[in-house]
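Quick one, probably user error.
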C-alpha cells in the first residue's frame, strides 16, 4: 500500500454549532472520538486546525496537530496547505476525514484507500444506501450515483433523486459520508481551482471538483453513520452509542 496520511480539518467557529469539535458526546469530545477511531487504521493521523483551544485539546489526549491559520473556504483547502507545508514527501494518498463523523472506523478508512488504489477515480468517498426518512433534511448530503460503476454524478442538500408522479414508488437514496481520499496530484489540483457557482449555491466543496471535470467514486458502507451538524445531533448520537 502506498504511503497514506489521514488529515482531520477542525474549525472552532462553525455557524450552526460554534465549538462543535470540543462538544462532549458521552463524556468524550467529538474530535477525540473521530481521531481515536480513524487512527486505529494504523495510518499517520493529524488534526489540522486554526484554533488554539482545539490544538491544546488534541495534544492533551496525545493526538498529533498541524496548525494552518490561513483563511480558507473549505476543509480540503486547509488539509492541502497542511500537506504542502509538512507532509508532501510522506504520502501518496491523503484522506480527509471531516471532524464531525464520530462513527467512522479505521477499518472503513483502510477499505476506502484500497478501493481508491484499485480505481481510476481522482477522488473517492463513501455512501450509504437508505430508504428511510432523512431525504428531505438539508444537513444530510445526498448523492446522485451510478451504482454500477460507483461514479458520483452530483451531490446535493436537496432530496435527490426526485420521484415524479404519484404512481412511481419511492426508491432508495444515497447518503454521503463525510470522508474523501485524494491522490496527491488530485488534492493539489483541487487546491488550485477557484470556487464554482454550484459549490457556492449548495455550500458543498466536492461540487468544485465535479464542475472542473474531476471524477469522484464512492464505496458503499452498510452500517449507520451519522455526522454531527447541530447541537440536537449530539443527543441522537448518544442514543446510537
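Nope, works fine. Designed sequence:
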Amino acid at each position: 500500500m502506498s504511503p497514506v496520511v489521514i488529515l482531520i480539518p477542525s474549525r472552532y467557529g462553525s455557524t450552526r454549532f460554534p465549538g462543535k469539535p470540543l462538544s462532549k458526546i458521552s463524556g468524550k469530545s467529538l474530535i477525540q472520538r473521530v481521531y481515536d477511531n480513524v487512527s486505529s487504521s494504523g495510518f499517520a493521523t493529524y488534526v489540522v486546525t486554526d484554533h488554539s483551544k482545539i490544538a491544546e485539546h488534541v495534544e492533551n489526549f496525545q493526538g498529533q496537530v498541524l496548525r494552518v491559520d490561513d483563511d480558507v473556504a473549505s476543509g480540503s483547502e486547509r488539509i492541502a496547505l497542511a500537506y504542502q507545508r509538512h507532509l508532501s514527501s510522506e504520502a501518496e494518498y491523503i484522506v480527509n476525514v471531516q471532524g464531525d463523523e464520530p462513527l467512522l472506523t479505521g477499518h472503513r478508512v483502510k477499505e476506502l484507500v484500497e478501493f481508491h488504489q484499485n480505481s481510476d477515480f481522482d477522488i473517492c468517498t463513501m455512501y450509504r444506501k437508505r430508504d428511510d426518512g432523512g431525504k428531505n433534511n438539508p444537513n444530510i448530503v445526498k448523492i446522485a450515483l451510478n451504482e454500477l460503476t460507483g461514479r458520483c454524478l452530483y451531490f446535493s442538500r436537496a432530496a435527490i433523486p426526485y420521484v415524479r408522479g404519484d404512481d412511481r414508488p419511492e426508491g432508495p437514496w444515497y447518503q454521503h459520508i463525510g470522508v474523501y481520499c485524494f491522490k496527491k496530484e488530485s488534492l493539489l489540483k483541487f487546491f488550485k481551482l477557484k470556487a464554482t457557482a454550484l459549490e457556492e449555491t449548495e455550500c458543498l466543496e466536492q461540487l468544485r471538483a465535479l464542475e472542473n471535470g474531476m471524477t469522484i467514486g464512492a464505496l458503499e458502507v452498510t452500517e449507520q453513520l451519522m455526522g454531527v451538524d447541530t447541537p440536537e445531533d449530539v443527543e441522537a448520537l448518544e442514543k446510537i452509542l
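The first strand starts at residue 4 and ends at 10.
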